[in-house]
Design goal:
The structure holds two protein chains of two kinds. Chain A is α/β, with parallel strands linked by helices. Chain A folds into five domains: 147 residues, Rossmann fold, CATH 3.40.50; 183 residues, 3-Layer(bba) Sandwich (FAD/NAD(P)-binding domain); 82 residues, Alpha-Beta Plaits; 165 residues, FAD/NAD(P)-binding domain, CATH 3.50.50; 57 residues, 2-Layer Sandwich (Alpha-Beta Plaits), CATH 3.30.70. In chain A, the strands form twelve sheets. Chain A has a five-stranded parallel sheet, covered by helices on one side. The longest helix of chain A is centred in the C-terminal third of the chain and has 21 residues. The relative contact order of chain A is 0.11. By secondary structure, chain B is an alpha/beta fold. Chain B has two domains: 126 residues, Rossmann fold, CATH 3.40.50.700; 106 residues, no CATH class. Helix content of chain B is 30%, strand content 13%. Chain B contains 13 helices and nine strands. A five-stranded parallel sheet of chain B has the order 2-1-3-5-9. The longest helix of chain B is centred in the middle third of the chain and has 15 residues. Chain B is globular. The N and C termini of chain B lie far apart (47 Å). The chains are: A alpha/beta, B alpha/beta. Chains A and B meet through helix 17 of A and helix 10 of B.
Chain lengths: 666, 330
């Protein structure tokens, strides 16, 4: 054995030492693993402390250690610490192996003796593995200073402004004709009840006029190539049929357009727009788009009213979709959420019972700029409701639909109750499972609602029906619910029902995630690098997430994430270049037969197939070292740095203590 | 007497196809005779074990050993030939990785014997089972004892070179014999010990002429049940072709003839468990994220053991089923 291996066993206070007899493990490693190259084995209270690190560094320098095994916590936490310690003592950081005897041992076992034996096995595996480690050098790549932000909702707007204000260029891509996102559809924001548009539109205007922001609305990302520092993003700019250089946004075109179209996006079907339109008066940019599938000219070949009346001749029916490719160094995804489809719960009658509304419909109904001018009326457009039911948790906290809490519904329901009460004087009933008001000022808002005289009924609504059982129910919507506080079934007749529909991941979240090379949770929310300590980075370097794309959250949290993602990107830009983990997959060109099994496997799109030579290749800067292709390659032609057959099999043999007990299977 | 170097070939648990493949090198066989003295080759010439036992250690230059180690006789001769040979080659799939006889490693030995002696077509009214020793008036006689599982040659003795294939292709055999002759004449050097010889560096796909695309499989099906496109990669058509995992050497004969590769050349270089590799590869290209649909697609592979371990079970990480490994022959 030529390697000189040092083993360092951490107590982690009582985290490890409370279950594992650390001193015994350390002594055992020094004696029993000496034949494997272990020349020193020590234990220490906190290996990650500077004193603990100095122990290792001193041994490297004085004893000439060539390999280090630290038995402590998960590599997620302290791998970087111990690698740096080794590096500072002159040992290549990748010759250090951190094995977990905390997460994988002391925290999951109570039998002290067995846990101690397991710690020995884990260390034996680490020692066997580390002998096969190689010195590696991190890859260094330059960072392009431009950033792509996808999604022009409040999170994306915030992120774009932070970066642009810091003096760096941002491309902001939005698939709708205007930025603003869901927030632009709301009337009031909880709990302060300030006007959503009043606080949002100044930011939208800033984005529209910022010299460092290239705003690409009515556009979608179609392809992402490259890697952190140098992505090449292809964007499809859908034809607007309006020349934005000459358009002044005067609005004559949509005034003169004879074609009315039901607005299913911004007005959620409650109102109309024209075939040439901006979604709302404060839209940014101010330029309209022509909705070609609904435009009379595109359908029948005649009309052109907009073109005739346009004072600057900005209408151009010949415009085509345009593809552009931009280089960026970092990407922030802020693509937001979809509303839960209330039709999935048939017993609530949405789509069947006229006066059952979704939360977003109510937002438009209560909005002064909305289809009713802010009058809260039934679907007939005139009748003011005398009693209104607000049903919480629609599609959320429900094993049949979305198991998670949508986090905003309680507060939005309270807001709705307040608005209904304030504007109509109607009797308001809130049907809730639990009231969740954890943020600043939220509980106070709840108390205010209690004082306003809103009725709170604790119970999950069973059914909303138009079938009357008694004369008072005639012509009403009847809420059938078990009031769990009084332990009785109740039937409450109302005129209007607002379903506080939950929020869920975008319908195309999965495809978008695949395009950007990041992963989704089971509910299709994008997965952050660490749920607590790194909520806005992803496992793919250079791709960040902000807002509801990461999980349900309210406006303040979305804004905070947008700003946080921007700060991370700015940090990267300032570094000018970054080092990448050298753990990468490589294809042995001679062994590769070009069978193409790996070609579609890479979640980071790092695999390239060369038609001429019929071999596949892994782009080392794109590769994140996940090992999917290594496992998938039937020819064993792809190997992962740090995960060679020798390393893995030695570790398994070590774990099984095969060489020590000399047992062989079969 | 002759001073030609000595050559031996032996068959343990095998079918005899490897011997045929050697003879199938046609007139090259004359080169073998011209350059070697054949001292032991049961299929081709008469010889007794005691003749081999009497030879000096290391006196045979080259031994091609085919067949797996199924009983104590196989093991005895393997060890004997190891002792007497300078170069011992694991020749053919059985000696390398167990091959078809190795598939019996899924079944406990007693069950194998019961099956063999009680089939419908076996006339065995007294339900007799073979005994390894039997007392005859002339004395006790013995037949070899079956082992619980079949082992590969290198699980029993040290092996110098590996030559896979079921059987190895004749042109590859001829090339290897040529090489050894050149080494004898000082014109070439032997490959490093432990090398796999008579093969290519890549896999069967490297020699396959069929068109290949990015693979997405919606359905697996047996080749005889469907009409296959003669130009397109068989695996892409849902025909479970083992080519991507199988060592190059045969020249992609089966896919060229319209049949899927069944993997007789064994795992590619660096692959430790052929079947596991192939399962991972096939699973990687199944085009579905719906667990029920995935089950349905995978059900198209009607014989997973035969598909993934037809040649490789004895040489795999598993080696066989636990019940077989722990079974005891009587």
């Amino acid at each position: 054995m030529t390697e000189k291996i040092g083993v360092y066993v951490c107590h982690c206070g009582s985290n490890i030492a409370g279950v594992v007899t650390v001193a015994e493990v350390s002594q055992w490693a020094g004696e029993e693993l000496a034949s494997e190259g272990v020349v020193i084995s020590r234990d220490y209270k906190f290996m990650c402390s500077s004193l603990g690190q100095e122990l290792i560094q001193k041994d490297i320098q004085e004893m000439g250690l060539t390999r280090v095994v630290v038995a402590a916590c998960s590599p997620h936490l302290h791998e970087a610490t111990f690698r740096t310690a080794c590096k500072n003592a002159g040992l290549n950081p990748y010759l250090c192996e951190l094995v977990s005897i905390r997460e994988q041992d002391s925290w999951v076992h109570t039998d002290k003796e067995a846990a101690t034996q397991k710690a020995k096995a884990i260390i034996s595996g680490g020692v066997a593995r580390v002998a096969h480690h190689e010195s590696l050098e991190p890859l260094r790549v330059p960072i392009h200073p431009d950033t792509l932000v996808v999604g022009g909702g409040i999170a994306g707007i915030q992120a774009a402004l932070e970066i642009a204000d810091a003096g760096f260029h941002v491309y902001l891509v939005e698939k709708e004709p205007s930025i603003g996102g869901h927030m632009a559809q709301f009337d009031k924001t909880f709990p302060t009840l300030d006007c959503s548009a009043c606080i949002l539109t100044p930011k939208m205007v800033q984005v529209g006029s910022h010299p460092n922001i290239t705003l690409l609305t009515w556009s979608e990302v179609t392809k992402v190539d490259g890697y952190v520092g140098s992505f090449a993003v292809t964007i499809n700019k859908k034809a607007r049929y309006v020349n934005t250089d000459t358009c002044t946004g005067c609005g004559i075109c949509w005034e003169k357009c004879p074609k009315k179209v039901r607005d299913e996006v911004f007005e959620v079907g409650l109102g109309n727009r024209k075939a040439v339109y901006t979604p709302f008066p404060q839209a940014v940019p101010k330029y309209p788009v022509i909705d070609a599938p609904n435009c009379t000219y595109f359908i029948k070949g005649t009309c052109k009213a907009c073109e005739k009346f346009c004072p600057t001749g900005a209408i151009n029916f010949e415009q085509k979709d345009e593809e552009i490719t931009i280089p960026v160094g970092n990407i922030i995804l802020a693509t937001g959420y979809d509303l839960f489809d209330a039709k999935r719960i048939p017993q609530y009658g949405y789509g069947r019972l006229e006066n059952v509304f979704t939360s977003l419909e109510f937002e438009r109904l209560s909005n002064a700029a909305g289809p009713t001018g802010g009058n809260i009326v039934l679907r007939d457009g005139k009748t003011v409701p005398k009693a209104v039911a607000i049903v919480h948790c629609v599609g959320s906290r429900d094993q049949n639909y979305n198991p998670y809490c949508s986090s905003i519904c309680c507060m939005q329901s309270l807001k709705f109750a307040h608005l209904v009460h304030e504007r109509t004087g109607a009797e308001v009933y809130n049907f809730y499972i639990d009231i969740r008001t954890p943020s600043k000022g939220y509980e106070e808002f709840y108390n205010r609602l209690l004082e306003e005289g809103t009725n709170f009924v604790r119970g999950k609504v069973a059914e909303i029906s138009s079938v009357a059982r008694v004369p008072e129910e005639q012509g009403k919507l009847v809420i059938q619910v078990e009031d769990t506080l009084i332990g009785k079934q109740r039937r409450i007749p109302v005129d209007m029902v607002i379903l506080s529909t939950g929020i869920q991941a975008r319908h195309d979240a999965k495809e978008v995630a695949k395009m950007f090379g990041i992963s989704c949770s089971a509910d299709n929310w994008y997965i952050e690098r660490h749920p607590k300590l790194d909520p806005i980075a992803t496992m793919t370097d250079g791709i960040y997430i902000a807002g509801c794309v990461q999980g349900p959250k309210d406006i303040p949290a979305s804004v905070a994430q947008g700003a946080a993602a921007a700060a991370r990107v700015l940090g990267k830009i300032q570094q000018k270049e970054i080092s990448l983990e050298p753990v990468r997959a490589t294809v042995n060109q001679e062994q590769c037969s070009g069978c193409r099994i790996c070609n579609d496997l890479c979640p980071f799109n790092a695999i390239l197939f060369h038609e001429e030579t019929m071999v596949s290749e892994v782009n080392p800067a794109l590769c994140q070292g996940c090992g999917t292709c290594v496992a998938g390659c039937p020819a064993g032609a792809i190997s992962g740095t740090g995960f060679s057959n020798d390393q893995i099999l030695s570790q398994i043999n070590g774990l099984l203590l095969l060489r020590i007990t000399d047992q062989e299977y079969a | 007497m002759t001073t030609k170097p000595k050559f031996a070939m032996y068959w343990a648990a095998s079918c005899g196809g490897c011997e045929i493949a050697v003879l199938n090198i046609h007139e090259k066989i004359l080169d073998v005779d011209a350059n070697f003295e054949v001292v032991f080759w049961p299929v081709a010439m008469d010889a007794k074990y005691k003749d081999v036992e009497a030879m000096e250690d290391g006196s045979i230059l080259l031994t091609l050993f085919n067949g797996g180690i199924r009983n104590d006789e196989n093991e005895h001769i393997a060890k004997l030939l190891r002792q007497k040979s300078k170069i011992l080659v694991a020749f053919g799939s059985c000696a390398n990785e167990g091959c078809i006889p190795g598939l019996a490693n899924f079944t406990p030995i007693q069950e194998i014997v019961d099956t063999a002696f009680s089939t419908l077509t076996t006339e065995n009214p007294d339900n007799i089972r073979p005994q390894t020793t039997y007392a005859m008036p002339e004395g006790e006689i013995h037949i070899p004892t079956l082992y619980p599982i079949l082992k590969t040659l290198d699980q029993v003795v040290d092996v110098d070179y590996y030559m896979p294939g079921c059987p190895p292709e004749s042109h590859q055999i001829a090339a290897v014999i040529d090489l050894v002759i050149q080494v004898l004449q000082g014109k070439a050097e032997l490959p490093p010990k432990g090398a796999v010889i008579g093969v290519g560096l890549s896999t069967v796909c490297d020699d396959c002429k069929r068109t290949r695309n990015i693979k997405k499989i919606k359905q697996f099906g047996r080749i005889q049940l469907q009409h296959s496109d003669p130009e397109l990669c068989l695996l892409e058509q849902g025909i479970p072709c083992n080519g991507p995992a199988t060592r190059q050497g045969c020249g992609a004969l089966c896919p060229a003839a319209g049949a899927q590769c069944i993997g007789c050349y064994g795992p590619a270089e660096g692959v430790i468990d052929y079947g596991a590799r192939l399962v991972a590869a096939f699973a990687s290209v199944v085009d579905s994220n719906n667990p029920d649909e995935i089950d349905q697609i995978m059900d198209g592979l009607v014989d997973p053991a035969g598909q993934f371990y037809r040649f490789n079970l004895a040489g795999s990480l598993l080696k066989g089923s636990l019940t077989a490994i722990r079974s005891i022959s009587k």
